[in-house]
């Protein structure tokens, strides 16, 4: 056991070193292949959709390539991002990092070998295999770009192939199934050794693509003739100076220094590089330390990030969000609701006991002067507290604001997110508020134009559903299903009980109202589910998106007649709905990927040719004074103004240079048609208003 653990520790240490070196080597290959960097534009969206280690690898690659002139930027489509060997670097290298961490976390505490521990070793083996195959693809790609012969012949002597990796995994799996953990560790260690050789060869081939000809030329005294081990066709002219990344240039210099101090000849150079990159080499630790220093000291590495489960919203996302909130607010105000705002945090006792098992997701704040407070979990409980505190007996309100939950982030699920709530409190005609709230939810989803959806009415409690047996499995058109329930045997049994009879009667009133309101086609009656929140007392409903984006529920609500009274006042019945706006925005953002979204509403760009801010200030202020959405730019080059207007999708541009100033005119340019008109300076506002509001 002791010997086995020591072997595992060596496996852990070597794999950890590989996970660092492999990223640095992959960065060299990116430069050798002039790869596109868009595959590394990963960020933590806060919903757990991208693995943390994948993001870390992508960040390390960008640090190493910072300043490189060889790779294509993320907005340049000329690189080779479509090649899996590059686009999968974050995934394969990130998975190795995760597997190494997983194994490392148990090595120091394990007391007995078991299947779980063996599984972690085997998992590492699989991820090493994937990394090795990906690296091998880049080796072959680099070999195709090396500008002289001989390197490929030397590589083929090592007999490195995908087959050797797959055979190693096969033997490791067999050992795992037999619970022969000594053999399992041995086989994974052999796989690791093969991957180390492949990664070393990736470094060698990338180095030869980037610096090989120059190095061999220098080592041969600039003669450019033949060298030992192969026919080296040295370049006759000195290569144009290339600019590597700030990180990769350091690594290349380290490798270059190593081979320049040794013997001449191609085979000797390859031998020295492979020896230097061998983890058993006495000089390897120094190289590993240098790579870590590059990653950790680079100023680009110290990038701040948002907390888990949160995200920033860039200009395009904010444009989509603004549009969505505008549509939602318009619907809410059409139904004559009053806007309400409440504190971001409440007394802890206000929220306690209102959410059932979900109460564990409430964010508690540190004690500040004797009051225990928590961030609000939703907008419904604060609304109920407000109604009770102010002694209101009726209130129709809407509230759009942030709430916080200590949930596990996933696609469309965050720890900080907006809710859009509409609630009606007070005594009204039977099922009137219920009908209006469902109608509002339907209007909102139609207005947002996200695609097909349905609203599921959850009409019965768990206890009642259990009593009617087979009907809990039924869902369908509301009026049709309700008629079936009331006309069947189970229905006749239900009608013998006053409470059940009243519930079915209420649903009949609701469905008839929705039918007359022409929105029942989006409603489905479902008896199988009851919402988990403790405060619901009657009809509940849920909106589900039926399009291609899988986001789950996009809205929900129901009746809660006792919640307001729980605050020590008289009971005030209430019903409300909450739109899952973050999930709706996920759908809208997916749809917007193939559409043109303007981040601003700029109508006019005031383009001043030259450097006179005062000219721009005078013109743009005249436009602002009459409520024209305008911005200005001061630059000597006309194309800079035009490119900015096109990129920002600004429809009109006012052009003013020295000539225009001297002649008392301006040029008005239509960006779409490219037509230009000369306008008298004193008629600018009038002429522009006519074009903006024809």
UniProtKB/TrEMBL annotation:
<dbReference type="InterPro" id="IPR004154">
    <property type="entry name" value="Anticodon-bd"/>
</dbReference>
<dbReference type="GO" id="GO:0005829">
    <property type="term" value="C:cytosol"/>
</dbReference>
<dbReference type="InterPro" id="IPR036621">
    <property type="entry name" value="Anticodon-bd_dom_sf"/>
</dbReference>
<dbReference type="Pfam" id="PF13393">
    <property type="entry name" value="tRNA-synt_His"/>
</dbReference>
<dbReference type="InterPro" id="IPR041715">
    <property type="entry name" value="HisRS-like_core"/>
</dbReference>
<keyword id="KW-0648">Protein biosynthesis</keyword>
<dbReference type="GO" id="GO:0005524">
    <property type="term" value="F:ATP binding"/>
</dbReference>
<keyword id="KW-0030">Aminoacyl-tRNA synthetase</keyword>
<protein>
    <recommendedName>
        <fullName>histidine--tRNA ligase</fullName>
        <ecNumber>6.1.1.21</ecNumber>
    </recommendedName>
</protein>
<dbReference type="Pfam" id="PF03129">
    <property type="entry name" value="HGTP_anticodon"/>
</dbReference>
<feature type="domain" description="Anticodon-binding">
    <location>
        <begin position="603"/>
        <end position="690"/>
    </location>
</feature>
<feature type="domain" description="Class II Histidinyl-tRNA synthetase (HisRS)-like catalytic core">
    <location>
        <begin position="494"/>
        <end position="584"/>
    </location>
</feature>
<feature type="domain" description="Class II Histidinyl-tRNA synthetase (HisRS)-like catalytic core">
    <location>
        <begin position="309"/>
        <end position="452"/>
    </location>
</feature>
<dbReference type="GO" id="GO:0032543">
    <property type="term" value="P:mitochondrial translation"/>
</dbReference>
<dbReference type="GO" id="GO:0006427">
    <property type="term" value="P:histidyl-tRNA aminoacylation"/>
</dbReference>
<dbReference type="GO" id="GO:0005739">
    <property type="term" value="C:mitochondrion"/>
</dbReference>
<dbReference type="GO" id="GO:0003723">
    <property type="term" value="F:RNA binding"/>
</dbReference>
<dbReference type="GO" id="GO:0004821">
    <property type="term" value="F:histidine-tRNA ligase activity"/>
</dbReference>
<dbReference type="InterPro" id="IPR045864">
    <property type="entry name" value="aa-tRNA-synth_II/BPL/LPL"/>
</dbReference>
<dbReference type="InterPro" id="IPR033656">
    <property type="entry name" value="HisRS_anticodon"/>
</dbReference>
<keyword id="KW-0436">Ligase</keyword>
<comment type="similarity">
    <text>Belongs to the class-II aminoacyl-tRNA synthetase family.</text>
</comment>
<keyword id="KW-0067">ATP-binding</keyword>
<keyword id="KW-0547">Nucleotide-binding</keyword>
């Amino acid at each position: 056991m002791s010997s086995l653990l020591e072997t595992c520790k060596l496996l852990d240490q070597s794999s950890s070193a590989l996970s660092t070196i492999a990223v640095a080597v992959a960065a060299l290959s990116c430069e050798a292949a002039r790869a596109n960097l868009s595959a590394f534009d990963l960020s933590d969206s806060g919903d757990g959709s991208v693995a943390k280690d994948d993001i870390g690898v992508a960040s390390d690659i960008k640090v190493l390539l910072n300043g490189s002139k060889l790779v294509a930027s993320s907005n340049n489509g000329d690189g080779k991002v479509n090649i899996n060997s590059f686009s999968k670097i974050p995934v394969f290298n990130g998975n190795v990092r995760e597997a190494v961490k997983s194994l490392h976390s148990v090595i120091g505490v394990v007391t007995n070998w078991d299947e779980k521990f063996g599984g972690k070793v085997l998992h590492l083996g699989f991820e090493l295999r994937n990394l090795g195959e990906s690296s091998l693809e880049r080796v072959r790609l680099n070999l195709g770009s090396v500008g002289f012969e001989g390197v490929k012949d030397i590589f083929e002597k090592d007999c490195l192939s995908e087959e050797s990796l797959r055979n190693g995994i096969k033997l490791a799996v067999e050992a795992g199934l037999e619970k022969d953990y000594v053999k399992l560790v041995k086989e994974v260690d052999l796989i690791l050794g093969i991957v180390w050789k492949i990664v070393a060869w990736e470094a060698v081939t990338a180095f030869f693509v980037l610096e090989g000809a120059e190095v061999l030329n220098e080592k041969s005294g600039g003669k450019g003739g033949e060298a030992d081990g192969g026919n080296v066709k040295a370049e006759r002219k000195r290569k144009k100076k290339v600019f590597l990344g700030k990180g990769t240039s350091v690594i290349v210099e380290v490798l270059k220094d190593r081979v320049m101090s040794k013997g001449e000849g191609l085979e000797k150079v390859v031998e020295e590089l492979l020896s230097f990159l061998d983890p058993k080499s006495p000089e390897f630790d120094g190289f590993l330390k240098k790579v870590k220093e590059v990653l950790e000291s680079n100023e680009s590495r110290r990038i701040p990030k948002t907390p888990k489960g949160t995200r920033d919203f860039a200009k395009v996302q904010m444009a989509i969000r603004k549009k969505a909130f505008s549509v939602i607010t318009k619907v809410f105000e059409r139904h004559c609701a009053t806007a309400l705002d409440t504190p971001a945090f409440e007394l802890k006792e206000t929220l306690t006991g209102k959410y059932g098992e979900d109460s564990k997701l409430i964010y508690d704040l540190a004690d500040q002067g004797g009051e225990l407070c928590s961030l609000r979990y939703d907008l419904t409980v604060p609304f109920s507290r407000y109604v009770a505190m102010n002694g209101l007996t009726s209130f129709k309100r809407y509230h759009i604001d942030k709430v916080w939950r200590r949930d596990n982030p996933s696609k469309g699920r965050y720890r900080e997110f907006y809710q859009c709530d509409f609630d009606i409190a007070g005594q009204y005609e039977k099922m009137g508020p219920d009908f209006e709230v469902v109608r509002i939810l339907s209007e909102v989803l139609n207005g947002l134009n996200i695609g097909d959806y349905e609203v599921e009415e959850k009409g019965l409690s768990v206890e009642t559903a259990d009593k009617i047996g087979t009907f809990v499995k039924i869902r369908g058109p509301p009026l049709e299903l309700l008629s079936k329930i009331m006309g069947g045997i189970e229905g006749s049994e239900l009608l013998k009980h006053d409470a059940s009879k009243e519930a079915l009667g209420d649903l009949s009133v609701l469905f008839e109202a929705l039918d007359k309101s022409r929105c029942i086609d989006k409603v489905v009656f479902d008896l199988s589910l009851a919402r988990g929140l403790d405060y619901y007392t009657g009809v509940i409903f849920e909106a589900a998106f039926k399009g291609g984006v899988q986001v789950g529920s996009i809205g929900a609500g129901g009746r809660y007649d006792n919640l307001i009274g729980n605050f020590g006042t008289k009971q005030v019945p209430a019903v409300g709905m909450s739109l899952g706006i973050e999930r709706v925005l996920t759908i809208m953002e997916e749809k917007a990927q193939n559409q043109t979204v303007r981040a601003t509403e700029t109508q006019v760009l005031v383009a001043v040719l030259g450097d006179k801010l005062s000219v721009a200030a005078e013109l743009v202020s005249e436009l602002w004074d009459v409520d024209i959405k305008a911005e200005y730019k001061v630059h000597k080059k006309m194309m800079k103004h035009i490119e900015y207007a096109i990129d920002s999708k600004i429809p009109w541009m006012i052009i003013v240079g020295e000539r225009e100033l001297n002649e008392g005119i301006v040029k008005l340019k239509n960006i779409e048609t490219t037509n230009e008109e000369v306008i008298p300076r004193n008629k600018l506002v009038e002429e522009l208003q006519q074009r903006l509001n024809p």
